[in-house]
Amino acid sequence: MESKDYPALYRESDSLAINAQKKHFWLVRTKIALLLVITGIMSVSWGQQPSLRTLVAIVLAISLVLSIAFTAIMNVKDLDRVWFSGRTIAESIKTETWSFMMKVDPYDGTLTDSEAEDRFLNRLDEILRRQPSVRSLLALNPTGGPQITQHMRQMRNETLENRRTYYLQKRIRDQRHWYAQKAMWNKGQESRWFVITWILELAAASIAIIMIIMEDIIINPIGIITTISAGILAWINARSYREPSESYGLAAQELALFEDRANQVSTEERLARLVLDVEKIITREHSIWLGRLL
To answer: Where are the domains of the chain?
Structure first.
């Protein structure tokens, strides 16, 4: 199911979350880079380079000011909260959209189209009310378009067999594939960064031994290496590779089981039960984003 087929509010919250995430990690990377510059400058014995003292002092002062400024920007903008809130809204809207199309409670087939649509719009409003700080940001960047798309209406009025097949292919399989890929990617990233950190710590220990033997070295790279190592750990913490790797992997396994169950659906009641169970698994992942807001 393409982005244009979802409510406009989904596209707005998804875009907000993606942009906030990019800005947040750009600030984190820049701050780490500035700390490396500061550490690199402080690791050199500038007493033996008097002609460079003024230039070095200026660069150091600028780097310190920028580091403080980026820290203040990160605190004021609170981009990680905007990111998590936007993602929570987007994923919640996805769940409501699929429930609406599959005629699942509270949008079951006993309702008229008008009643179901009215209830859907009320649920979107409830989702927004849970994130008041982000609601104003969404209002500033409207994408336009309906909250109930023509595709949503058409799919809701399809036969049971067509809705079952569509849900299996476009929701269960698509989401399982996404979870599996993300689980592998996060696991690989975590392993790679920890190996690099271990190599850096080993290098720092080796250099420390060399410096004991060679006392006339004007550069002390140990501080630089340890700062790089600390920066990598800060990056790993910011990305939180382990938690998504484990939770996404578990979700992918659980969704794989529901693929076979989907093939056995033959009534509206069984389809509703399937959708509720699958969306419960996916909604569980929302708790990760909600937990980060606390």
So the answer is: 3-293
Question: Higher pLDDT residue, 200 or 94?
Answer: 94
- Enter the tokens of residue 146: 């309906």
- Share the mean pLDDT of the chain: 84
Residue 64, C-beta contacts closer than 8 angstroms, at least 6 positions apart: 38
* Mean pLDDT comparison of 166-175, 180-189, 206-215, highest-scoring range: 166-175
- Name the residue with tokens 């420390």: 208
CB 91 within 8 A of CB 289: yes
C-alpha dist (Å) from residue 32 to 80, 100, 176, 203: 17, 45, 35, 20
Greatest Cα pair distance, the chain, in angstroms, is: 85
CA atoms within 13 A on the CB side of 6: 25
pLDDT by residue (tens digit) across 58-111?
888 888 888 888 888 877 778 888 888 898 899 999 999 999 999 999 999 889
Which residues touch 157 (CB under 8 Å, ≥6 apart)? Answer: 113
Q: pTM for this structure?
A: 0.81
CA gap 177, 67 in Å, rounded: 40
The length of the chain in residues reads: 294
DSSP 239: H
The three-class DSSP label of residue 275 is helix
